[in-house]
């Protein structure tokens, strides 16, 4: 009797774990199949990790800048170290950050990213009070996107490495965004025009 109860709870535990895994896979596949494609301009570096294999480390143009915010949003971001990124596209078709909030919007494409926030006036002691108050906002957000590595299989890795090392290539990462999830789907290289 006791063994059958233990066995029953082991089976229930196994089924619960399996259902969580299945849900994650299904949501990821739905995002890949139906999500809107955003192109993130990148600056790649190609390292090798003995345990994880070949990947291209990505640095994004949208993360090389700070974004102004208000004090309440800054305090919430400091407490959680996370923010919700709302996306749009610039004139060239690349992804840009339209808004950074602490809640998911009802409409539009968004996902969660790591973030930090700081009061820029505390770092700028040399500026006069007038210079500090004329800025758009003293509270600034830095973000880190959740996809800083693009993994490649052993057949793709040599070609990606060759193209990543060529400074004449413009690079972007295709990311599908849907239901507040972002999934990288491809790393692309565009050759710069001859001058």
Question: What tags apply to this protein structure?
Answer:
195 residues, alpha+beta, six-stranded antiparallel beta sheet, globular, 30% helix, five-stranded antiparallel beta sheet
Kindly summarize this structure in a few lines.
The chain has helices at 2-34, 71-80, 129-134, 157-165; strands spanning 36-45, 48-49, 53-60, 67-69, 82-89, 95-101, 110-119, 139-144, 149-151, 169-178, 181-191.
Describe the structure.
With 195 residues, this protein is of the alpha+beta class. The protein has one domain. Helix content is 30%, strand content 40%. The strands form two sheets. Strands 1, 2, 3, 9, 10 and 11 form a six-stranded antiparallel beta sheet that branches. A five-stranded antiparallel beta sheet has the order 4-8-7-5-6, with helices on one face. Strand 10 and strand 11 form a beta hairpin. The longest helix has 33 residues, at 2-34. The N and C termini lie far apart (81 Å).
């Amino acid at each position: 009797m006791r063994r059958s109860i233990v066995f029953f709870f082991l089976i229930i535990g196994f089924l619960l774990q399996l259902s969580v895994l299945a849900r994650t896979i299904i949501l990821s596949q739905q995002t890949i199949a139906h999500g809107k494609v955003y192109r993130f301009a990148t600056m790649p570096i190609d390292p090798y990790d003995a345990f994880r294999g070949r990947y291209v480390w990505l640095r994004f143009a949208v993360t090389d800048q700070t974004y102004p915010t208000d004090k309440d949003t800054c305090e919430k971001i400091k407490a959680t170290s996370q923010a919700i990124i709302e996306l749009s596209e610039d004139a060239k078709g690349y992804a840009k950050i339209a808004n950074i909030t602490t809640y998911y919007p009802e409409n539009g494409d968004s996902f969660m990213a790591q973030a930090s926030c700081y009061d820029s006036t505390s770092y700028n002691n040399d500026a006069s009070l007038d210079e500090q108050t004329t800025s758009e906002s003293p509270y600034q957000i830095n973000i880190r996107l959740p996809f800083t590595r693009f993994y490649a299989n052993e057949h793709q890795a040599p070609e990606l490495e060759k193209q990543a090392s060529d400074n004449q290539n413009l690079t972007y990462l295709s990311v599908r965004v849907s239901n507040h999830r972002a999934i990288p789907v491809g790393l692309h290289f565009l050759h710069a025009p001859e001058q």
